[in-house]
């Protein structure tokens, strides 16, 4: 049975194939025959994690900020408050799994937002400065998923 999913702002048709691993080709995501809904979700979480990590390494190699210690990333199903898409908890950035639907630019923006929270827990002047400094343009996050 074919279905549709959105990955990074792009609508993809999911098709089962003889492949051992998922592969995206154009607007088609080929997944192994053995993949059930759980395996597909696991794959999407892995991809989101990879996107976030690669955006983080791009941002941190820009030299605009320096963090002592390590940031962890965790993909979560959802938060108790359904309107929340990401959160900083200690040194861990939690991101809701359906964020994979958003464009790379938006995912990056979410990351910048949470990184800025390392410098200030409130959305105050210090936070906005950190956001601008880290590399985000100051704009509203898309909430619609
Ligand atoms: Zn915030």
TrEMBL record:
A Pfam family annotated for this UniProt entry: WLM
Gene3D superfamilies in the record: Metalloproteases ('zincins'), catalytic domain
Name of the protein in its database record: WLM domain-containing protein
Lineage: Archaea, Methanobacteriati, Thermoplasmatota, Thermoplasmata, Thermoplasmatales
Domain WLM: 102-141
């Amino acid at each position: 049975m074919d279905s549709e999913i959105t990955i990074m702002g792009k609508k993809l048709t999911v098709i089962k194939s003889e492949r051992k691993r998922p592969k995206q080709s154009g607007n088609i995501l080929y997944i192994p025959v053995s993949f059930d809904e759980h395996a597909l979700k696991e794959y999407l979480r892995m991809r989101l994690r990879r996107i976030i990590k690669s955006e983080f390494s791009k941002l941190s190699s820009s030299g605009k900020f320096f963090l002592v210690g390590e940031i962890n990333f965790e993909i979560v199903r959802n938060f108790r408050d359904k309107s929340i898409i990401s959160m900083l908890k200690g040194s861990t950035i939690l991101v809701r799994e359906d964020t994979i639907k958003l464009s790379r630019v938006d995912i990056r923006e979410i990351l910048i937002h949470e990184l800025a929270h390392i410098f200030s827990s409130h959305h105050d002047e210090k936070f906005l400065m950190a956001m601008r400094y880290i590399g985000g343009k100051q704009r509203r996050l898309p909430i619609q998923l």
